[in-house]
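Changelog entry: the Exopolysaccharide biosynthesis protein record was regenerated in this release. Current contents:
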Amino acid sequence: MYHLGELVIRRQQEKLIKSVRKFVSKGQPYVIMDFPSAKDPGHHASWLGLARVLYEVTGRHPVLTGGVAKSIDEVKNTPGDAPIFICGWSDFGDGRIGRDDIRFRLACRYPDRTIIQMPQTIDFANDALLEYAKRTIGRHRKFFFMTRDEQSFGLAKANFDCDVEAGPDTAFSIELLKPFEADPMRLLYVMQPFGDDDVDIAEARAIADGPLTNWINGPDSLWRLRKSSVVKAAMRRGFSRAQMVSQHHEDVAARYVDYGVRMLSGAQRIITNRLHGHILCLLLNKPHVAVARNGSRLHDAIGSWASDSPLVEKATNAGELLAAMSRLPYEMNGTWYKSSRPMDLSPSLPARDLVPHPSIV
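Regenerated structure tokens:
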């Protein structure tokens, strides 16, 4: 079956490869930091995509991966020319741990290392954290920042004394996904309540009924070190503890992504208010509606990186859901239809340039 998301995905993968090549080349060592602390498949999708794009560019695995305080100390034992890539699975400035955030600690501890914050959203909990981030990044001088939505890009340009670039979430660098065998369902909600000003989930389900998952609590068993990870590391002559941990992190991320894919596999239509729900739907070739309030970061990111994909429609409230779903394509006997008409897929889907973003300013 024709993959309606492939052209958009390939374009974002090329963008990420181009961005990464500014910092690493074939055979160069590198470090990946901020391994997801939660059991959210979307967070792990960002890590897995980052690991894969870096391997494609360098042809080697990282010399160190980490996400806890101890791993910050271990960076000093890696080659001095190894840049530090920080995974963008969480919001920058979300106030989870304030000044103890791993990103700030890395910048303070390693002022002579190149540090690259991979694409993420900026959303500071308060002005004090923003001011601390401005001072920390300004002192570093080798900090490079990537954002995945226009609002975050503007905030970074206005406040951070460093190079800033717009880029898609690294989850786009996962290969095209195939659904697992699953019981079919007409509609699935992948949503999480984000606040009083967000779309009312109960109201949405009253209009278009379907099961609900916020998918952020995968099984603990996926975290366990398995013999297969040790074997994979050994096969690439990775006998050190750091190499074993690196392989383990990649395998854990892949398991959580598979966990998310299994939940999405049976649904014909998906309604989500999560960025990574949207990205995994694109990778899976699943028609979906991204529902969020006017001016949301979710719609901002979709408008920047996937606006020309027929797989996604946007809705700003529960009342717009039915109209948005009616605009989605559907597949029947191997043919894609839209508004009850076969889709013309030749020679290709539109591949226009995205909303213009300054590459590096």
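The mean pLDDT is 88.
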